[in-house]
Amino acid sequence: MNKRTHRRWVVMLSLFQAMATVYGYHKTCKKPQCRRKLRCTGIRLPGSKDNYPIPLFPFCGTIDMAERVRKGGG
């Protein structure tokens, strides 16, 4: 990954985490650090078993949550 791609990835991830926080996904998140920090801190690990086509989703939530965030709906 070159610097430009990495920078883009970091910016997009932070935007998607902010959207997930606004929608309140951190309140029911499986990761304790999200609930403790009262915001989304999750990332989608490479090689996730769900084969979701967009690499930045679905954080640690569900594909349904990811689709709602991607479409801009709460």
Question: Which short descriptors sum up this protein?
Answer:
0% strand; single chain; globular
Describe this structure in words.
With 74 residues, the protein is an all-alpha fold. The protein has one domain (3-71). 47% of the residues lie in helices and 0% in strands. It is built from three helices and no strands. It has helices spanning 3-22, 32-37, 63-71. The longest helix has 20 residues, at 3-22. 22% of the residues are buried. The model has no long low-confidence stretch (mean pLDDT 76).
How much helix is in the residues? 40-55%
SSE class: mainly alpha
Largest sheet: none
What is the N-to-C succession of helices and strands? HHH
Counting DSSP E segments of at least 2 residues, the number of strands comes to 0
What is the straight-line distance between the termini? 32 Å
**What is the residue-mean pLDDT, rounded to a whole number?**
76
Low-confidence stretches: none
Shape, please? globular
Tally of structural domains: 1
Number of alpha- plus pi-helical segments = 3
Strand content: under 5%
If you compute it from the alpha carbons, what radius of gyration comes out, rounded to the nearest whole angstrom? 12 Å
